[in-house]
Amino acid sequence: MTVPDQPERAAETAAQGEAPQPERKQPPKKRRRKKSTLRLFLTLLLKLALIAAAVWALLNFVLGVAIHYGNNMYPALRDGDLIVAYRLQRPYLNAAVLYERGGEQSLARVIAMPGDVVEISETGALSVNGIAPAEEVFYPTYPAETGNVSYPLTVGEDQVFLLNDFRTDQTDSRSFGPVDLEDLIGPVLLTMRRRGF
Questions:
Q1: What is the pTM of this model?
Q2: Beta-sheet strands, E only, within 115-197
Q3: What is the pLDDT of residues 32-88, one digit of tens each?
């Protein structure tokens, strides 16, 4: 049996009312080139560099991370707690904030905002704008034994007045006065208790 030629097949299919089907050509198979070891290594280095840059930007412009030393914020925060502060949020009243002073980072609570009037009496009474702030743990608040802060004190523009939760520790605005907003790293976003520290 002979196989009809291409034109004969096309004529037969046209006579039967079918459209002629063109022959399908198989596309040439692409050869997969193996990536060289050097290229893979460079790709890995680039990815690691991008991840390191993203982490650096996150820690320098979005978050502040520190380990809290001391008990000046007891009982809310304890010695050895890991602190994460949110740099993009402005401080607010009663927020625990991470701040920098003299090249060292520390924690305190915002007691008064710009324009507020702080009064601390010799009997240990604290008032802000004539009202005693509501606090979870009450400690008497005495003026600092050192420093030259006098009361009543009006907090300046772009400043906040900070107090430690454990008021016996007077390394706060009672000793060195209000803190500039530019020295605040940010309000505490979360804390992690480090066990066995």
A1: 0.70
A2: 117-120, 126-128, 153-154, 159-163, 179-180, 184-192
A3: 556 688 888 888 999 999 999 988 888 788 888 888 888 888 888 888 899 999 999
d(CA 113, CA 111): 7
- Fold designation for 65-192: Umud Fragment, subunit A (2.10.109)
Task: Please report, as a single letter, which amino acid is at residue 32.
Answer: R
Q: Check if the beta carbon of residue 174 is closer than 8 Å to that of residue 70.
A: no
| Edge-to-edge strand ranges of the sheet holding 117-120 | 126-128, 117-120, 153-154
| Domain spans, the chain | 65-192
Of 116, 134, 131, 130, the closest CA to residue 173 belongs to 116
Q: How far apart are the first and last CA of the chain?
A: 93
